[in-house]
Amino acid sequence: MSIDGHKILIANRGEIAVRIMEACSDLGLPFAALYTEEDSQSGHLDVARRLGGERSLYRIHNYLDAGDILSVADEAGATAIHPGYGFFSENYRFARRVVQRDRPMTFIGPSWEVIRDLGDKINTKRIARALGVPTVPGSDRAIYDELEAEAIAESLFEFQAKMGIKRPVVLVKASAGGGGMGIDECEDMARFRQTYRRIRNYSLRTFNDEGVLIEQRVFNFNHLEVQIVSDRSGTNPVHFGTRNCSVQSPGLQKRIEVAPGFWPQGLRYTFDAGKLLDDITRYSLSIAKEIKYDNVGTWEWIVTPNGEPFLMEVNTRIQVENGVSACISSVKGDRDVNLVREQIRIGLGDPLGYTQDDVSFDGVGIEYRLIAEDTESGFAPWVGKIEELKWPDREWLTMHTHVPTDRTYQIPTEYDPNLALAIIWGKDLEEAKARGLQFLNELRLNGSDSSGGAMKSNIPFLIAKTANLLEF
Fold first, then answer.
1. What's the whole-model pTM score?
2. Please, what is the end-to-end C-alpha distance for the chain in angstroms?
3. Most buried residue, 40, 131, 370, 386, by most Cβ within 10 Å?
4. Which residues are tagged catalytic?
C-alpha cells in the first residue's frame, strides 16, 4: 500500500507536533496543524508555516475537544490523525471514533482494539502471565472476596521475606482507578484488612466497582523500557533496543533517558545485565506477537537490584524518548532512523520492510528533558518568559524544541513547562556523559518572571544526575 494521497492532521502541540511535521515533510505528506489561543506564540506554528504554509494552521479551543479536532480534520480534508503523545494518544474510544465515523480516517497508532486491550492493566498482566512473562507479584484480576484478598496478601509478605526484603510492603489498589487514585500500602497483615476495606469502599463510591488489586510494592528499582515497532500485519514486530528512565522527579516524571538500558561493557552489576536486557526484549516481543501489535509502542519494566524484571505496563503510543533509541540504531546500515517517521509510514499501511537482523546498535544515547521548574522546591513549575535559548551546534547533538530562538517566549501556564529535548550520542557511556555535561554547561537558557526574578530550570539537577547514569 502506498502512503501517497494521505494528509495528516496533527492533534497535538509543541515539540512532538514539530517532529510530526518534520516527519510528514520527509515522507512528502501534507499536514494540518492545530493551535490554541494560549499556544499562539509557540514555535510549532513557525514550523507549520515553513513546511506547510499558513493554510496548514487551524485554531481550536482545546486539544482535548474531540469534536473540534474532527471538524478541523474534515475541513482540512485529512485522511489520518496523528495524536502524538498525551491527549488522545491512548484513548481507544477516540481511535475507534476516528476509524468508524461516516468519513473514516486512519488513526496513526495501534488499532483501537489493541489500545483497549493493553490499556487494561489487569488484561495485560493476564496475557503476560499466560506467556510466562514476569509481572509484579500479586493478583491478575479484580478481587471481590476479603478472604481471597487476605490469602494473596499473606503470600506476598512471605514472598518478600524470602527475598530478604527488610520492610515488606503490599499495595492495595482500586482496580477501576487510575492516575494514582485509590492506592494505599500496608506493612503487615494486622493493617491489611482495614486497608482493604477502605480501598474497596472508596472504589465502590468513586468508580461504582468494589474490585481491588493486591500487589507487591517494589522499592529501589530501575525503570527500563523496550521500544517495539510493528506494521499493520501485527506479525513481524522488531525492537529498537532498551532505555533506562530511572532519573525521575519525586512525582515519577522522567527527566533523563539513556539507551541502552544498562552498560555492562563498562559498569559492574550484581547480575548479568546483558542477559537481563535480552530477556526483557524477548518477553516484550512475545506479547507483541501474541496480541498482534501493529504500530510503535513501549513495554515498561521495573528491575530489582538483584536483576529481577517485572513488566509494569505497555504504552500504546510514541513516547517522548523515542529519539534516544533512534540515535543508537541503524536499519540495513542506515543511521538515519526516525521512529516518528516509521510510525506514520507503517500506520498508513506500508510494510515494515526489514527484520530484526537488519537492525543494529552502536554507542550510547542520552536524552535530557529541559524543563522550567524549581527542583529545590518540589520540582514546582516555573512561570515566566524565556528570553534566551541558544546552544552550539555539534554533530553529536540533536535538539527538539517548540521554544522560539529568535524572540522571547511566554510559557503558557495551561500546559507543562517542557522546553526542549536534547539528545546526545557517544561511542560509549563515558563519551556520552562527557558530551552531555559539555552541552549542559554550554547551553544558554535565561528568562525572568513577572517580578523580574531569574529563571529557574532543571539544568543543575541534570548536571548532578549525569555522573551516575546507568549505575545500579
1. 0.93
2. 46
3. 370
4. 317
